[in-house]
Amino acid sequence: MLIPVILSGGAGTRLWPVSREAHPKPFMRLPDGEGLLQKTVQRTANLPAVGEIMTITNRDYYFQTRDEYVETGLGASIDFSYVLEPSARNTAPAIAMAALALKSRENAVMLVLPADHIIENQQAFSEAVSTAVDLAEQDYLVTFGIHPDRPETGYGYIKKGQAIEGTGAASLVDEFVEKPDLARAELYVKSNEYLWNSGMFCFRPGVFLDELEKQAPDIFQAVMTCWKQTDSDLQPLELDADTFAVIPADSIDYAVMEKAESVAVVACDIGWSDVGSWDSVSELSVADAQGNRLTGECMMIESNDCYVQSQNRLVAVLGMDDLVVVDTPDALLITDKAQCQDVKKIVQQLKDDRHEAYRHHQTVHRPWGTYTVLEEGPSFKIKRIMVKPGSSLSLQMHHHRSEHWIVVSGTAEVVNGDNTFLVHTNQSTYVPAGNQHRLSNPGIKDLVMIEVQSGEYLGEDDIVRFEDNYGRA
Description:
Radius of gyration: 24 Å
Structural class: alpha/beta
Number of domains: 3
Number of helices: 11
Distance between the termini: 39 Å
CATH superfamily of the largest domain: Spore Coat Polysaccharide Biosynthesis Protein SpsA, Chain A
CATH architecture of the largest domain: Alpha-Beta Complex
Number of strands: 29
Strand content: 25-35%
Largest sheet: 6 strands, antiparallel
């Protein structure tokens, strides 16, 4: 029984300003309008005999992940299950928790897939998975290697060992190799002995756990302690926060795959990309006669081999070559293509400066919907708030700000102090500072409203929650 396990939640710092901590890479929309996570789950659901897909993600991303899956329309044919991490501890602990959740399933085989990769050849992917499952059923730990088509320095490599009879594309792993410099990458490609390490895996849950105990006993013991403190009968499965936080953080490659003996690699050509930087994103668009790849409203004059992505406004480029320009409502990235791998330095600088742009977009997703900051200044902030049908914000109070709500479309149910009442389109209400209040959407269409905040402090942390439908403090 094949059960795909999707690892979702990587920060994707090289894809700032679209990927941010609160809206990471798996939720990115590509030029065709679909998100990376959506593409992954659709591709996975198309594998033969898949009836359940497990997703491992941070608890903060659960509701948005669920919404992404609803958009795919797969809910009628696929059971979605979740393992929610309270913090990030890298891939080895995450996969171990999924393995524990699946260990009791008879004949279960895990197919571990990152949420943020592109695979263009579904048929070749299905064939590679079939080979990997056969090997996993023989108790191999299986990884997938991509035939390299260029000397890439941004990927790790796998050196092929002895071929495994009867499989055609599979061999034992001779060596895992770190990301090389250009000269070594060129030698690897010429030798035909090396594959790109795709970060995809296939094995039985019990086989992986036995190997984890052998190769990384400190991680294994900490994982088991966390599992004992977790109520594994609940769904979604929320891992115990205190014991999970002290698990040693390590990748599956370092902790297990590079040390284990029965490791096999399936060599494949599946149209794979990890979409790890803006130059790889640019390859998903068709180039014009000047080599420019454009998304959105762009004007290119005497410019060549550029990638430009515009979201809400015209971007004009004059007399430039080999640039990446990514425009979002609150942040603009301009970089030479040769420095795409260094965009993460910008994110680190924003973190060091405590600038909100490393974490949030202008539009922020919440379990109940979204809010967009339209304008702010001294002592005021204006937001557009969208509440999904049947959803509600927490019952809350603010010490430092009052709020004026104007309904643009839909109907709002409002708790304001001791009163509960409806506010219809073109009506408004006022919430003084210190009043307990709650906003809900009792209708069947989105509630859209404008919120005007006023006060000496307007930070998002000025919220005291009394009740919440989403388990937030």
